[in-house]
Design a protein that fits this description.
The structure holds two protein chains of two kinds. By secondary structure, chain A is α/β, with parallel strands linked by helices. Chain A has eleven helices and ten strands. In chain A, helix 3 packs across helix 5. Chain A is globular. In chain B, helix 2 packs antiparallel against helix 3, helix 5 runs antiparallel to helix 13 and helix 6 runs antiparallel to helix 7. Classes of the chains: A alpha/beta, B mainly alpha. At the A-B interface, helix 2, helix 3, helix 4, helix 5 and helix 6 of A face helix 10, helix 11, helix 12, helix 13 and helix 17 of B.
């Protein structure tokens, strides 16, 4: 059994009277691809936001490599090795592709203000390294050659890939991807999944996905967690989850669930 | 490119001729504003000329380091214009960090300028003696302290910037603008009212006389046989001090912008949540932006009070903040050359062009020339453009926003944006 990188203990997040995430337990082991699925409004993205420190949970605890992070700001959590992409792409639109990737490297830059102002040799070395690494990452996601284009001018698919490159720039151990295949054709989604598998191999990454594309989820995931109305209703290997009556009910409604087990 | 490098000699000769020729013209007709504007324009030409960076620097040094002081000594008013331009360039560059790079709309920027100005005004005049009774130190402090206070001005303004930054960390856009506006007013009102119970700022009456920096080089000048009165020396002195500070400010600005700090600021401007999620420490970077911007204003404030010999709260009104902001917007948000040209254009317009036209109208009036049966002597004084300063300004800003919203010299990526408009309308799938 490999080490647990990310763990949620009975996490609860409320917005006024609405319980968006209700006492959810969750563990993510090193080296797997795990998915969180569930109908719209099930609390998937909220859970992501709790993991990355954008929301503060009312109850429960989130641990990164055994360390509680709920009191930390998002940038500190990123520094601990958890980085993410967003459901509705949030690139720095008026910055270039290269600069977007470089911003992701912020936590890895070891420079003092003095180095910047005096342009010390350390600055030159660090900056050069950062640019080289950023270019390498752009190469990995297939955006090399476009580094000087403005992020806003990239086609949609490239923007998604740039967001992944930007997250990778933070050298995360865990990569959280919020609906990475949204708006993609089945073919594009497949190739993105192949790309994710490669990332695991090459970067030693652990990946947590939110996904609606069931074919992708079932194919790529080692483990699937199902949320509905903020509660975890099922967890396990894709095939197990697929047969779980509560999952079928959540997706298709009660009437169908009593009949033949439909594939969600 | 090959076409350009094929005739660098011609370009060099042209540029040199323009600078030298216009300078000579100013020398011959020192009262002609057009001649002086030609000289200023020649420096802009240097910026755009197809020359190497080194050559441009050399011409700028020639123009600003040698010709400008000579012309300024010839006609003292031009020196005053140059000094004012320098002060506002530094202010615009400072505000450019806060507004242009970090995207934090600050409407009370002049407060930091006031902090620097009052810092030296209080201690560099007998004023401090009114609330500090010390036996071991007398006020005003010796002129030599001025240089210490330049550094102190940076530090105190930076701390003030952080103090302003802390409560407004969570605010954005309009809300931030309102709070900073209030902050600017608070500083001005404080200056206005801190004459009781302890008389720190001397209230609306202002503080005077303020010490000037020491003319430590005067004996050396005399030794080499140059006899100059303080009347010629001080403007030159202030000119070179301000020029030096402006050069440092430009360097600092540029180095910050092209580093992880500048990128973090721009990321915050683009998307705060995403920036923080990518590891940008929001609190630290925002405070750093406020502190850096404020420190430029602080050091110029110290300069300003030493140059003016007199300051009062009237110099630090809300309109001043707006004026500096207008320079940044006019020049191009987030662009260093933009901030420089914006500050220059606005200051020259105010001090020189509008005043010049007013003077010219006055001359016409006095001459009593008749046009179409109308005697110009009857022209009411309300027509003087100097009285419409803000209106002319407003019209220019409106025209700019309609025809060139990215500013005179847009930031590099704004330029990219402009040329890439074809892609802009791509619908999100």
């Amino acid at each position: 059994m490999s080490a647990i990188l990310l763990e949620a203990r009975r996490v609860t997040k409320r917005f006024g009277g609405l319980v968006a995430v209700n006492a959810v337990d969750f563990t993510l082991e090193e080296g797997v691809i795990a998915s969180i699925i569930g109908p719209n409004g099930a609390g998937k993205t909220t859970l992501f936001n709790v993991f990355t420190g954008i929301y503060h949970p009312e109850d429960g605890d989130v641990l990164v490599q055994g360390r509680s992070v709920i009191e930390l700001t998002p940038d500190r959590i990123t520094a601990l090795g958890v980085c993410r992409t967003f459901q509705n792409i949030r690139l720095f639109k008026n910055m270039t592709v290269l600069e977007n990737a470089l911003v992701g490297m912020h936590t890895r830059v070891q420079l003092r203000l003095w180095d910047v102002l005096a342009r010390t040799p350390t600055f030159g070395r660090e900056e050069g390294q950062a640019v080289r690494r950023a270019l390498d990452l752009l190469d990995v996601v297939g955006l090399r050659g476009q580094e000087d284009a403005l992020a806003r001018n990239l086609p949609y698919g490239d923007q998604r890939r740039l967001e992944i490159a930007r997250a990778l720039a933070a050298s995360p151990k865990v990569l959280l991807l919020d609906e990475p295949t949204a708006g993609m054709t089945q073919g594009e989604a497949q190739s993105l999944m192949g790309f994710l598998r490669r990332l695991i191999r090459e970067f030693g990454l652990t990946i947590l996905l939110i996904e609606h594309n069931m074919r992708v989820v079932m194919e790529v995931s080692d483990r699937v967690t199902v949320l509905d109305y903020g509660e975890k209703i099922a967890e396990g290997r894709p095939a197990e989850v697929q047969r779980n009556p509560r999952v079928i009910e959540a997706y298709l409604g009660r009437g169908r669930a009593t009949g033949q087990a439909a594939v969600p | 490119m090959s076409e350009r490098s094929g005739r660098p000699v011609v370009v060099n000769l042209l540029v040199l001729g323009l600078i030298g020729g216009s300078a000579a013209l100013v020398w011959v007709v020192p009262r002609s504003i057009l001649a002086f504007m030609l000289f200023q324009a020649s420096l802009v030409v240097v910026y755009y000329a197809p020359l190497s960076f080194r050559a441009k620097m050399a011409y700028a040094a020639l123009g600003l380091g040698l010709l400008m002081p000579v012309l300024g000594t010839h006609n003292g008013y031009y020196m005053e214009v140059a000094i004012q331009v320098g002060i506002f360039v530094a202010l615009a560059l400072g505000l450019n960090i806060v507004v242009g790079l970090a995207g934090l709309l600050d409407l009370g920027y002049v407060a930091f300028y006031a902090v620097g100005a009052y810092l030296w005004a209080v201690f560099g005049s007998p004023q401090a003696g009114k609330f500090i009774s010390a036996t071991f130190v007398t006020f005003p402090l010796a002129p030599g302290w001025f240089f210490v206070f330049l550094v102190l001005g940076i530090a105190v303004a930076a701390v003030t910037g952080v103090l302003l930054g802390l409560p407004v960390l969570r605010l954005r856009g309009d809300y931030l603008a309102i709070v900073t506006l209030g902050f600017g007013e608070v500083i001005r009102v404080l200056a206005n009212n801190l004459d009781k119970p302890w008389n720190i700022t001397n209230g609306p009456k202002g503080i005077t006389p303020i010490e000037r920096p020491p003319l430590f080089f005067e004996p050396a000048l005399r030794a080499v046989g140059i006899e100059a009165s303080p009347f010629t020396l001080y403007p030159l002195y202030f000119y070179f001090l301000i020029l030096g500070i402006v050069v440092v400010v430009i360097l600092v600005n540029q180095r910050l912008e092209h580093s992880h700090v500048g990128r973090a600021w721009e990321a915050i401007r683009e998307d705060e949540v995403a920036a923080q999620a990518m590891g940008v420490p929001l609190v630290r970077m925002k405070l750093l932006a406020f502190a850096a911007g404020a420190s430029f204003a602080g050091i110029m404030g110290v300069m300003f009070s030493a140059k003016q010999l007199f300051i009062n709260p009237e110099s630090f009104t809300f309109l001043e903040s707006i004026g500096v902001l207008a320079m940044v917007i006019l020049g191009g948000m987030g662009s260093i050359p933009g901030a420089i040209i914006g500050a220059s254009v606005v200051t020259i317009l105010n001090l020189q062009v509008l005043k010049g036209i007013s003077l010219w109208l006055n001359d016409l009036r006095n001459a009593g020339i008749e046009i179409f049966g109308y005697n110009l002597a009857n022209l009411p004084s309300q027509f003087e453009p100097a009285k419409y300063e803000r209106m002319v300004f407003g019209i220019i800003l409106i025209l700019m926003m309609i025809y060139r919203p990215e500013g005179i010299i847009p930031a590099r990526r704004r330029r990219l944006e402009r040329f890439d408009r074809g892609h802009e309308e791509r619908p999100a799938p």
